[in-house]
Design brief:
Layout lengths: L1 H7 L2 H10 L4 E2 H8 L3 H13 L3 E6 L2 E6 L1 H6 L1 H10 L6 H14 L10
Antiparallel strand pairs: 1-3, 2-3
Amino acid sequence: MIDIFKALSEESRLRILSIILEDELCVCEIESCLKMTQSNASRHLTALKRCGILESYKNAQWTYYRISNGFIQENKELWEYLKHKLKELPTYISDYETYRKCKAQGLCNCDKNPH
């Protein structure tokens, strides 16, 4: 539980979660949507994955992240809280608009094969 709350105590990680609420995303989409460097995004994604909030899979050289079903099942009340509160972040509206534009323009160069 301590690791979960440590991971959630960082604003960039909350922003990542707020856009992953909508759909699984490739690392390059997260970087583009949130204007993060690859190393910064990877550091935050690793923290969220290590504590069990996110899970990932690889498709060729690209890694996709999504909310872990195990996390949702084991932390139902926390998950319900997060689903509502993440949308109240001061950056949510602009992050979400950027996410929508990124998806609409197909900015990701990776060849997505959904799981």
